[in-house]
């Protein structure tokens, strides 16, 4: 335990952010690293409570509680407090393949279930995780680890998002020859094209890919599995295949006027923006918010990333619609600890919009009913109706449109961010695995699909989720592949020491 009364004596410090007004002039990360002395203080707040809910990692109530990677949080808190950074790093990578991603973009369910949070504020776990991994890269501790022996067996990982990368890393370290096949031109999945640069700089993703390459993993880009190479062909070459193809089927908004130009799925917009940035193209990206009235439909994190991107492109105004009501300032009775607190926060994008235009861009309990265009067929306006929460049959609360509260909004660019429906149709049509509610059907424990030697992990299997869950799934699927191949090839006596 750090300091006996640390959580009483020392106040929690939030990670420092670059000022909202300043950071919208560039695309660099908005979070700043916390200095070493301050971090030791933060680590001292860990009370080593004995039952570390922070590392339990399970679905509780409506969302995730504790770290899904079972990160050894109290242990590395103590090591950081003692100044034993290298040991803290070794403890961290026991459970987390890529702390540099989670420490930047994880919503930190660990903090929501931290015991210190019951009586005071939670330990700043995510900041400590970030400091450990940043230091490891600075000090040169994160160097290529090449497996000492190879099994002679081959595995293919389809998709290079966090699930695919974690599976590839684990299998490579276990001695398999691993090839990652990726449809896109760059590797990283949504870490590369999806999550914007302000949350995870792309050089951070590229640094990890380089490290994995140096460790022996082969990366092949621009390969659309099911089109450029069939599953049958892959199964002949590789002893096992893991599908980590994500949950990229976006939900459509089927209302009048959807065919007008100027209306795009959020992912088309975000991907185009990142490609424009990385390719260092001159001028504006093909879809730009510059000098436009922008409306983002959908109240989630993808929508927030659209808001932050549009602000950096110089939009004229920005509004984000959500169907649900504003969250309370404090936990409700139906949202007890150790569930993550479902409370109002002014996330990075909203703080930036408030700084730029003077108000939070979110509009709550609102439904889009139609798009209206000009003579050229470009969207110029959008119609909405307010939603009221009322008791339906059996007393169940439900939203009802209030026809007396209609409104029209200026809109030159509309971004649809109302969620994802599961794995893309191609996966089922071209690859031939069975589906379960739009996700790849794969056993909860073995991650095995209906095809022998073919496994699935990450969003493709569990639906749109979080980086931390994707890493966990990749690790577990790799463990299962290892077991499968050891059993299948037991006569060969696979032994990697
Ligand atoms: C805009 C946005 C912001 C987000 N922000 C956060 C955040 O801040 N924090 C957080 O924890 N989570 C966030 N998420 C969720 C998180 O990114 C995902 O849960 C995670 O990336 C899923 O990992 P994955 O490896 O399963 O799939 P993905 O990251 O989706 O990767 C799948 C990969 O498979 C490739 N692929 C698909 N089909 C084929 C094929 N046939 N052949 C070859 N390759 C193929 C795709 O091109 C892609 O690269 C965000 C998601 C979005 C959309
Ligand atoms: S990965 Fe996420 S949940 Fe786990 S310790 Fe890090 S911030 Fe917390």
TrEMBL record:
Keyword hit for Oxidoreductase: yes
Domain named Dihydroprymidine dehydrogenase: residues: 26-140
SUPFAM superfamilies: alpha-helical ferredoxin, Nucleotide-binding domain
Record-linked InterPro entries: DPD_II (IPR028261), FAD/NAD-bd_sf (IPR036188), FAD/NAD-binding_dom (IPR023753), Glut_synth_ssu1 (IPR006005), Glutamate_Synthase (IPR051394), Helical_ferredxn (IPR009051)
Organism domain of life: Bacteria
Gene3D superfamilies from the UniProt entry: Alpha-helical ferredoxin, FAD/NAD(P)-binding domain
Protein keywords: Amino-acid biosynthesis, Glutamate biosynthesis, Oxidoreductase
GO terms, biological process: glutamate biosynthetic process
TM regions (residue ranges): none
Protein's pathway: Amino-acid biosynthesis
Record's keyword annotation contains Oxidoreductase: yes
Domain (FAD/NAD(P)-binding) ranges: 155-317, 398-474
PANTHER family: GLUTAMATE SYNTHASE [NADPH] SMALL CHAIN
Protein name: Glutamate synthase (NADPH) small subunit
UniProt organism field: Scopulibacillus darangshiensis
